[in-house]
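Worked Example 4.2. Consider the chain below.
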Amino acid sequence: MNFFDFIENESFFRPLTLKYRRIYYDCIQLLIEKTKELPVLYETDARDSITIYLKNANIRKAEEAADGEEELLEESGGLQAFEILSLFRDCGWLLPREIGRNGEYVTSVSTNCRRVMDFLKKMTEKNEEGMMSNRIFSMYEIMKSAFDGESMRAERPYANILVPLVENESELKNELTDLKDSISDIMKAVVAFQDINSFGQFIMKDEMLDHFFSEYFFVKNNGLIPAQLSYMRNRLRELRQGELYEKMLRECSEKLQMDRDRAQERVDGYFAELQYFLTVEYEENMELIDSRINNYYNLANTRIMLMAGNGMQMEAVLNDFLNAITSLDEGGRREALEKVADCTRIVHQKYVSCRSFERNRRSGNERENIGLLTEELSEEEKQAKTEELFGSAPNRYSVDRVSSYMAVQMGADEQIRMKDQHLKTREEALMYAATVLYTGNEEFPYEVHLSDQIVDTGIAGISDMSVVRKDRKRKNG
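Applying the procedure from the previous section yields the following structure tokens:
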């Protein structure tokens, strides 16, 4: 629907085109704030508020002594509050007069006027900090709650899930466009500077640079945002194929009073728009912004070099100077370099700070006896220390350790079978695995014969095996 067909008033924007448009804008904003403060705004209160505003504005502008603004207010001195209210009713900003409970007329701001003025106020008072990240976080929370079994959004998925996602996607797209336009404005401002002082002031004091780069780099470098975008892409496919999709079609058809085919076309269009933005358009915009930022840095660097060199290319001058020196003889080169040294002044800068007066503190045990104490260990303590070192050794499954373990397991027997063993720990299972690995080692005193049968040892399923002493095998041979 066209906006003017919806507004149904050709004079809706007329106060914003008249001579006193600034005054009319401030007055309607004042009335909107009053309607938020008071449950019922009577016409007498509205007239008093506008009258006070006009008097204060005249006094304030007169004190500022601004020629253009002062002339405007002198010409607007004849404006009266009732004339402004009458103009607002004619253009549709205020609803027709109604008599309240106490017999006085009530002033009511129309819904369309309130929405338009709120939009204009947000646009003029827009804060760039956190806008992009807030849009992404909002889309992530909506998508996450859509798959929560206790979420109330699933009751009306079209109005509470799909439409908010599309609205946040549209605003995020606008934010990306604003970022691209901001870089263009910065580059134009850099080109316009003619001296290094003004350029330095622009870099140090311009808040647009700080706001722009801080939000952009937060979105680009924050580790959560790529994961959230990937989560939304995956969930969007599931949402389009799940039960909520049918509920969206029914809700859209009932709410917008259209048949199922048109509702499906509308819902599918929203899904396609979201999928394309999250998959393609977002990355393309970020890459374009990266490219423009690099161009901005290169332009700023070149501009600084040109302004610092007073229009001369220092690299080319230095190159010509060095080439000229190489063509001179040794005496000429020495004389040229001495003259260059006389033209160069190097000053060493040293600063005095609190650390310059800091005294070195002595260590707490500097005056104490730090010699090592000697003490005798008993045989039991030596054995315990040895076992502790042996247990923390890097190779816990060496040939010697595995051989010692198998000697304990076999005892006086010449052969053991895996199916007769019951393992209690993971380390015991690894000991038998190491036995299989060492069976071909000459230093290992045991030999392993495997079978195809699997034995459940309590810790893991292991192939049945028999471990035989190599001495016994030699005797039998």
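Residues 260-308 form the longest helix (49 residues). The CA atoms of residues 31 and 46 lie 7 Å apart. Compare this with Example 4.1 before moving on.
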